[in-house]
Amino acid sequence: MIDVRSLTMRYGNYVALSNVSFRANEREVLGLLGPNGAGKTTAMRILTTYLYPSSGTAKIDGLDILENSEKVRRCIGYLPETAPLYPDMQTEEYLTFVGSARGLQGQKLTERLRWVREACNLESVWKHLISELSKGFRQRVGLAQALIHDPKVLILDEPTSGLDPLQIIGIRELIRNLAKEKTIIFSTHILQEVEAAADRIVIINEGKIVSQGTQSELASEVRLRGSELKSNPSLEDIFIALLLPNRGGKTGI
User: Fold this and answer.
1) Homologous superfamily of 2-213
2) pTM, two decimal places
């Protein structure tokens, strides 16, 4: 469903991404994990056709992001780290505007508004100004705008950033429910979020892929590299062993 092939992004002499390749299968949640500045947001912006890569390409639902950028935009929903909201609009008004911009109208628009209101649990703030909403509800409205046109693919950049624990749990559950029908790729630097929500993991650092696979596959790779791990390692143990191999298996960053 998402096939990334040798993406490279240069800003002058600075290389934000270097020969990055990975794949997300249909109805799979792929976690893009890495420290701040690792290149996660750059990769997301290229996938959403916001940025044009220096080299390489990707296909989403069989569509090349360079050759079919307009069609790619139609089949994806995108939530950037800062949700693109208009604070002077009511929740319903804003989502109606986004739906209309996505080409929805009439009964179809009404049906999708009803669906996102229920799926994103927005009933209690449906008539509220966005400026009045908590960070958690603003994030839900951001997810709703990404879902309004019923895309096959969701691309979420740090979807739980700045949320409290209960809000994080709510967003995490929503992502898992959406994965029953959609392919989802989300970026984060929070280990627990990937461990809880992702089917497979891509670890990126300094613009390069460090490793990718399920958590058990990542653990096997660490052992093949000669690093010691306990019998049932956490993702934190694996992450440290891959990015900081000279720490001798000690936990903590």
Assistant:
1) P-loop containing nucleotide triphosphate hydrolases (3.40.50.300)
2) 0.90
